[in-house]
Known about the structure:
Blueprint: H1 11-37, H2 60-66, H3 88-94, H4 99-102, H5 112-139, E1 144-145, H6 151-165, E2 175-179, E3 188-193, E4 198-203, H7 210-216, E5 219-222, E6 238-239
Antiparallel strand pairs: 1-6, 2-3, 3-4, 4-5
Region (Disordered): 67-91
Amino acid sequence: MPPTRxxxxxxxxxxxxLALTLLVHAALVAGWQQARKLRLPEQGExxxxxxxxxxxxxxxxxxxxxxxxxxxAHAAPRPVxxxxxxxxxxxxxxxxxxxxxxxxxxxxxxxxxxxxxxxQMIEQAMRDAGAxxxxxRKDSKPTIVAPPDSPQIRMANKFREAAxxxxxxxxxxxxxxxxxxxxxxxxxxxxxxxxxxxxxxTERSPATSIDMIEKHGKQRITNCGHEHEQPANPQEWRTAxx
Length: 242
């Protein structure tokens, strides 16, 4: 079967299609130009909201106290001084009103009942606390009792005193014990036990004169030959709670 050729178009129909295409493009270009010239509708301004925090209104008494004294705007200028004496009526009109009378504070509300009730509550609480403290002190009151004593305890104490009087070794440190001073002058005595021997140091009383201290010194080294001198033992009395 031989190939078939497409039918040939008429030249007039080609021209008509070309003209139609040009006409459509021209219409589109004209519409685009008109659209560019059109003004856009003006948009309204955006709503602007500002929040303002209003302070609470003060009482009239506080406002009257804090408000400054402002000069009166409607005050008339002072007249020129004349030789004639002013009349009493003019003096009364021209006299300024005192600021205390203008800004007289309103009577403050009475708060005496509330203050009295609070004071009574505080006093009652203090009385209750005091009663509780007294009850606790009464229940836990310590009683002073004598230290435990027995023949065995006394013997152990004597052994310790004998060991304290034993001479030291050459490599041991000196033993220093404070003694009881029966003189009553405030002086202090110390017994020093070393490997070479035993001696006492007496520290003068604070009431000693300065001349005596400057001449003879504040401390004296003496012998320890008094049998009545005993070590100053600490207080052994205790309470029942201990």
